[in-house]
Amino acid sequence: EFARRRGDFALTSVVSVLRFSADRISDHVRITIGSLAERAMRARDAERLLAGQFPQVALFEQAARAAAIEVQVGSDLHASADYRRDLIRTHVLLGLSECNRRQQTRADVG
Hints:
Elements: E1 13-21, E2 24-34, E3 41-42, H1 44-50, H2 57-70, H3 81-109
Antiparallel strand pairs: 1-2, 2-3
Helix pairs in contact: 1-2, 2-3
């Protein structure tokens, strides 16, 4: 979640969930983007890009760009549509990278 000041309404929020099967991302992928409308929206195109693939930074970057493009984003007095898209891209990339990092930590321990 990103807000300019503590306690402000979030300009964007992102939830990323990846499940892994061996060394690949399974078909269970969820990327949800909120704070843009009354309800959160799934970035289904980005999810499809990831399903069944080997996790790698270039893939996460591609999915983050796809997520930022596919959701409906508007401008208001708090932020322009371009700024919100950049926040979405950045936060999706961070979320996917964190999912992958946690998986790698589990693999190293187990």
